[in-house]
């Protein structure tokens, strides 16, 4: 098992890659320059089996071990940026107005490239590594689309793993848990249909703004009074649209928001109760609603065997105490969940230090974390695909 010190000499080069990507962010599936950069780097490492154009700009590249036959495991990094103007004030800040790597996908890509370079040179494992460079994580559909386009079956991937930087956790620390690690994500829209009129005569209207306010308050009681306090349900109203003039009560109000859960049963409960809550309140005021609910990213669930492999790899790199094996699940969502639905595996968090949080204009990936991510990937591969039998 390798210690992190073995990967310190890779930090300078990986930092150059990371900062290059940071200066040139691209969105969703339109990762043309990013994908070109990744493909050229992989080829320069002597990796000649590279599949491109998956989910438009996704890449799957393969490194074959020299220790015999074995399974194929997938290692995934996301590549896309966010539509946020950067405020980090770093010399390597985004050169594209309105876009930035605000979630650290530039770091994720650089760490997987670093591991690819190391493993292509050593190949001290059996079987095959499938390096998965994914577009459109922020869009929430890139992982699903790569799965739908058949990467698991087509390339015989038996297990799949991913990693995400974690601001607020010290560099050199890892966190993971068995089972649910990130919430499912749903979106809802409620249109409250009332009767508009003059603001001076509200008694002649069915005011949808007042009704919408009651619905918003009512939705909060689904969490505080209808859900077990030991379970996790988050309902957030995030958009509210109504009216065009000061002296006119509008005919309708639009309410939108998100639902995050850590159990499938709560997902069903939330959808049904949001609808019934809105319908009941609107009916009491002689109004009607139109309700839409969309299930987006599923619950992300770490599998026991994959979690144990991840823990061993991380502890081999940094020691027992620097790896939290019973981390609290996050109510944020992550589209890697689609890959973990398709194949067993695990998702681990990597400390990013005391940086701004992800999706903050001041955020920047911490380059000190690069050797830890590279070393983790190497240890994981050599743990799962060891040429020696382990008990």
Automatic annotation (TrEMBL):
Domain Peptidase M20 dimerisation: 187-279
Matches recorded under InterPro entries: Amidohydrolase, Bact_exopeptidase_dim_dom, Peptidase_M20, Peptidase_M20_dimer
Lineage: Bacteria, Pseudomonadati, Pseudomonadota, Alphaproteobacteria, Hyphomicrobiales
Keywords: Hydrolase
NCBIfam families: amidohydrolases
CDD domains linked to this entry: M20_Acy1-like
Protein's name in the database: M20 family metallopeptidase
């Amino acid at each position: 098992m390798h210690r992190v010190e073995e990967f310190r000499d890779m930090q300078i080069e990986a930092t150059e890659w990371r900062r290059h990507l940071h200066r040139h962010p691209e969105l969703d599936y339109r990762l043309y320059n990013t994908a070109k950069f990744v493909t050229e780097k992989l080829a320069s490492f002597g990796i000649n089996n590279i599949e491109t154009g998956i989910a438009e700009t996704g890449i799957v590249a393969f490194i074959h071990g020299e220790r015999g036959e074995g399974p194929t495991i997938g290692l995934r990094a996301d590549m896309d940026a966010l539509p946020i103007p950067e405020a980090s004030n770093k010399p390597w800040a985004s050169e594209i107005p309105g876009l930035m790597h605000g979630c650290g996908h530039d770091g994720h890509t650089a760490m997987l490239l670093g591991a690819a370079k190391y493993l292509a040179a050593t190949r001290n494992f059996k079987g095959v590594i499938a390096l998965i460079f994914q577009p459109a994580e922020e869009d929430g559909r890139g992982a699903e689309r790569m799965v739908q386009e058949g990467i698991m079956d087509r390339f015989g991937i038996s297990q799949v793993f991913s990693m995400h930087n974690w601001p607020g956790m010290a560099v050199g620390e890892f966190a993971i848990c068995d089972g649910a690690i990130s919430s499912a994500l749903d979106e809802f829209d409620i249109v409250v249909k009332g009767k508009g009129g003059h603001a001076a005569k509200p008694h002649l209207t069915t005011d949808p703004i007042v009704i919408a306010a009651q619905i918003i308050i009512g939705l909060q009681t689904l969490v505080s009074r209808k859900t077990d306090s030991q379970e996790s349900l988050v309902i957030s109203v995030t958009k509210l649209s109504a009216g065009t003039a000061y002296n006119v009560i509008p005919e309708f109000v639009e309410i939108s928001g998100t639902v995050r859960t850590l159990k499938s049963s709560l997902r069903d409960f939330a959808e049904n109760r949001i609808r019934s809550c809105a319908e009941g309140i609107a009916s009491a005021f002689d109004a009607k609603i139109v309700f839409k609910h969309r299930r987006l990213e599923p619950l992300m669930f770490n599998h026991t065997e994959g979690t144990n492999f991840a823990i061993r790899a991380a502890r081999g790199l940094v020691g027992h105490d620097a790896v939290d094996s019973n981390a609290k699940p996050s109510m944020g969502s992550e589209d890697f969940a689609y890959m973990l639905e398709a194949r067993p595996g695990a998702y681990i968090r990597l400390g990013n230090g005391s940086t701004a949080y992800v999706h903050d204009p001041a955020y920047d990936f911490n380059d000190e974390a690069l050797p830890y991510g590279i070393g983790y990937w190497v240890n994981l591969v050599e743990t799962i695909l060891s040429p020696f039998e382990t008990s």
